[in-house]
From TrEMBL:
It comes from Promerops cafer. The gene is Cfap77. It comes from the Eukaryota. Transmembrane segments: none annotated. InterPro entries: CFAP77 (IPR029147). This is CFA77 protein. Pfam families: CFAP77.
Amino acid sequence: QPELGKPMRNCYSLPGPDFTYGMYMHKRDGGVPEAIGHWDSVKAKPHKRVMPRDFVAMGRAAVGEGCTTAREFALYYKFKDIRCKDKQILRYGCKVPPGVTFGRPPRPPTPFFDVMQHRYKEMWMEHQRARTVVQHVVKKKVGMIGEVRENRTTFLRTHPLPRKEESFWHPQRFQKVWAPHSPSQHQRQLSW
């Protein structure tokens, strides 16, 4: 029976104070001090990449040497081995060529005192004033000359269209009726 107000005890005995709980790493494990104090860097091994053969360059060189038959070309390829050039500048373990800069160049810094003194606002206001002066001068020149660009409305005001004479409306069937010129035509119409 458990004691009153206390949890029930288990039957297992705990190990001593020198016991470590969890899994122990048998490699080099110095804990947090080693992780903070010593940066574990891995040195890159020199990786030599074998490039494929450049048959275009070998064929060009063989023709330059005077090879004409397939046997001569095969012998030339056997004794002269030209490889393709590596187009990638950087590979794992390669050195960066001098003068190469990566990334985008930084934008020029904004002068802080110009921002504080509202210099950009003043420049914009001067630009707007100059633009207004130019527009005013152009408007005066147009007013002095007196030439206004003519559009359809002004043209029709100066040259009105001729008025159409009003005619009474006649039905379509009475449009082609002949006026009787002689009694013979009149008789023909009556006979129809």
